[in-house]
Amino acid sequence: MADEESAGGAVARSLRTYAADAALAVVIAAVVILGAALGDGAAPVDYALMAGAAAALAGYRRAPRAVLFVSTALTTAYVLHAHPGPLAALPVIAAVHTASRAEHRGLGGAVAGAFLAVFVVRDALAADGAAGRGMLLAGWFLCAVVTGVADKNWRAYLHQTEQRALEAERTREEAALRRAGEERLRIARELHDSLTHSISIVKLQAGVAVHLARKRGEEIPAALLAIQEASGEAMRELRATLDVLRTDEPTGTPALLAERARSAGIPVTLTVGGRERPLAPALDRTVYRIVQEALTNVARHAGAATPTEVQLTYGEAELTVRVTDEGAADPDRPPTEGTGLTGMRERVDAVGGTLTAGPRAGGGFEIRAVLPLTGGPVAVREESPSAPRTPVADAAMGAAP
Predict the structure, then answer these.
(1) Which helix (H) or strand (E) covers residue 356, if one does?
(2) CB 81 within 8 A of CB 49
(3) Within 10 Å of residue 279's Cβ, how many Cβ atoms?
(4) Cα(336)–Cα(65) distance, rounded to whole angstroms?
(5) Would you state the pLDDT for residue 31?
(6) How far is CA 362 from CA 291, 323, 326, 329, 370, in A?
(7) Measuring CA to CA, which residue among 71, 78, 91 is closest to residue 47?
(8) What are phi and psi of 369, to 5 degrees?
(9) Could you tell me which of 89, 84, 180 has the C-alpha nearest to residue 140?
(10) Is the pLDDT of residue 390 over 50?
């Protein structure tokens, strides 16, 4: 259901875009045809050429170069047949602007120069003496190229500003999470080094007293047994609290991340292969962070409507996490590795895995991590110094943290 809704949203956005482009083409066609009708008139074939040149502009987003050639060829044919005024060049001016906007300013300038040459020669052959019309058209074409380049630079500036804002927000969130984690570890160390030691001493003394009373055959006071039991319970609860403070569990699962991405407009599919089984906490966190960072990169670099696939494949000794998208990444221009991929690589290295990331040969981007299900670095639990242990003390203290 979520996939259908996201696909429907992408179709609706595409239809709105095409409608806006078609409206632009209709407006330009109306202006050119109305100008011809109010002038000396035109033959039916001329109206067809004007309509075709303007209609081609509806596809400028998908094929700006093709639109440039088609509009210019049809308008040139109209100029050679009917010898119209400068207003007839409006479709070519619009096509030159869109080509420059799409980073084809050299091609746009060359086509504009060729059309201008045809227009000036046609004026000269007609012996109208209207050399000023050529100068006027030259100014219009120059403005079209300049505004196209300016529009491209402005859009790039807005995109960079948005990316910097997103990166700054993400950095702030990561810094806040890091500070929270450091504070949890500081509290855990303080509790371990102070409260744990005190409770251990109480439990030790109570255990020694109970042991000596039993050894002498004396009746053990109920208060002493209560102290021994309460101190043991306090030690267990404190150990559980320290485990919580030292654990940085993720706030969800890869399935939840995929669901959130779909709700944001990214068509994500999640597939799980092999025999799925519970993972160690460190490995579980690594898988979660890999998928989270990969989907974040899809939204930032590939676009919100880019189809994406997340694959989790469980083997006998390793888990493979693969995230691929159908974006416009180019294998000939691999991206520079940023903080996201660097952090992902560090997480994978910490659990003894391997990570590969880069554009795919068929287009799009792929992140692939192979993580061992067993082995890898083992966390060592810290212990605080305490009183020297004896067999009685070991029996009394039990499994202190």
Answers:
(1) strand 354-359
(2) yes
(3) 17
(4) 29
(5) 83
(6) 22, 15, 9, 10, 22
(7) 78
(8) -120, 130
(9) 89
(10) no
